[in-house]
Amino acid sequence: MKKFFVILMAALFVMPMTMDAQNKQLEKARKKEFKTKMKELSKEDWKIFASTRSLDVALLEHYEKLNTMGDNAYELVGIAAKFKSKNVGKQQALNSACIAYAQHAKSYVQGRIVSDMAGDGVAADNEFDNFYAAYERLVSAEIKGELRESFSIIRDLGDGTFEMQTFFIVDQDAASKARIRAMENALKETEMAQKHATKVSEFVNEGFRENQ
């Protein structure tokens, strides 16, 4: 009993030290990540857009939001290129982020349908083409309301046009609800996919965190 007590006390002493070491290592990695990203942005002549904050503060706050949200955070970057009007560029970057998210969502569901249902003799590629297209379009529309902008950066291309990147964070729970709404409407539009609505719903509800 005494031996067990000694081992237990030793374990309780070692665990905080191990966790502290891990936290320090993680903090060190985060600082390195920040410095690397700032060096990259500076080298490529990116400037903060439409903000009184400096670029380094904006990036630090962005990383802090991601760290605080943990696994529930999904980062999206919208890209706009070769535009003259900065307002147009901002809208293009937003649309770019929505489209990128929708394409990712569609690819995940399509991959699951093909792999899981083809084995049952379902010609998933042909039967679900209309569903895939409708789902991607509707996810793009639904996710727009869930995007939370962190900051935007811009650079002059030297020919009278600009390039912009806008960094967004999406709450995974809200995004999941957006995908479900898109799926429900996509199924209404595609009669053939309705026969497999239960299976499709499973894939949509799973999300695609493992593929980020």
Report on the architecture of this protein.
- With 212 residues, the chain is α+β, with helices and mostly antiparallel strands.
- It is 66% helix and 16% strand.
- It has 8 helices and 4 strands.
- The protein has helices spanning 2-43, 55-69, 86-117, 124-127, 129-143, 172-189, 191-194, 197-206; strands at 47-49, 73-83, 147-156, 162-171.
- The chain has a 4-stranded antiparallel sheet with strand order 1-3-4-2.
- Helix 6 runs antiparallel to helix 8.
- The radius of gyration is 23 Å and the shape is globular.
Brief overview:
With 212 residues, the protein is α+β, with helices and mostly antiparallel strands. It is built from eight helices and four strands; from the N terminus they run H-E-H-E-H-H-H-E-E-H-H-H. The chain is 66% helix and 16% strand.
Secondary structure: elements and pairs:
Blueprint (H helix, E strand, L loop, with lengths): L1 H42 L3 E3 L5 H15 L3 E11 L2 H32 L6 H4 L1 H15 L3 E10 L5 E10 H18 L1 H4 L2 H10 L6
